[in-house]
Amino acid sequence: MIWLMSTPVETPTFDPAQVTPGPVGFFVTIGLFLAVGLIAMGLMNRMSRLQARYAVREQLEAEAAAGAAANEVPTAEAAGDEPKPDTASR
């Protein structure tokens, strides 16, 4: 135990080359930043296209439903009229 206390401890030296990324790290970081930015822009473009397609599809379906409803022949029951009795068979 006394031996451990008597031994001087060396202070570690600070070498900036071991703790800084340098130019290679800088370029890798910029490359990652650009790659993530391009991926995000592509995702935003894809999402806006999908939303536009969805809106057009909904509009076409609504127009088709309105056209189908307009082409239906109204029956007497649907119009609220009571059917007239058949007087020709008497």
Automatic annotation (TrEMBL):
Keyword annotations: Membrane, Transmembrane, Transmembrane helix
Location of the region described as Disordered in the Swiss-Prot/TrEMBL record: 66-90
Superkingdom, taxonomy of origin: Bacteria
Compositional bias (Low complexity): 66-78
Transmembrane region(s): 24-44
Biased segments, Basic and acidic residues type: 81-90
Identification of the protein by name: Uncharacterized protein
Organism taxonomic ancestry: Bacteria, Bacillati, Actinomycetota, Actinomycetes, Micrococcales
